[in-house]
Amino acid sequence: MKEECDGLGAKYEAPDDLDQLYFREDIHGQQIFHLIDAVNDWKKEIDVLPSRYFDTHEDAIKYHGYSNYDNYLKLVRADTTRIGCAEVHCQDDGRRSYRVFCLMNNMPLKSGDVVYQIGKGGCTEDDASSCPDGSSCERETGLCKMDEEQ
């Protein structure tokens, strides 16, 4: 975003110790982009990558540094509990572009890191250990939700 939108005053600085997602699309004609378009682009990486690229030893999906599916793995990481995104539509000299930048509250993935444990799906209210400390299972979604901060 920094380079592409400098003329519009859209600059960012990101800490190196937080995981990041970035989406860039040059706009042609009357196309309109939204945050969901960026998320869908990151998600579709899994559709084109053979499963043999995933290490499934010890009932876990582990990261191995293949950049072809970095964004997807960042989205599905089990230890991500917060994500914040900024989006900007840029226009400069008649050129239009769209940028999304997101930060997560965890360190960037390194080779060998566990992305998530292989299991039968979401958490259950009956099993308190199915969610990390400081979180509980949300019945409607089957996802772990961070407890309200005191």
UniProtKB/TrEMBL annotation:
Basic and acidic residues biased stretches: 136-150
Protein name per UniProt: SCP domain-containing protein
Region (Disordered): 128-150
InterPro entries to which the protein is assigned, alphabetical: CAP_dom, CAP_sf
Organism the protein comes from: Oesophagostomum dentatum (Nodular worm)
Superkingdom to which the source organism belongs: Eukaryota
UniProt xrefs under Gene3D superfamilies: CAP
Ranges for domain SCP: 27-102
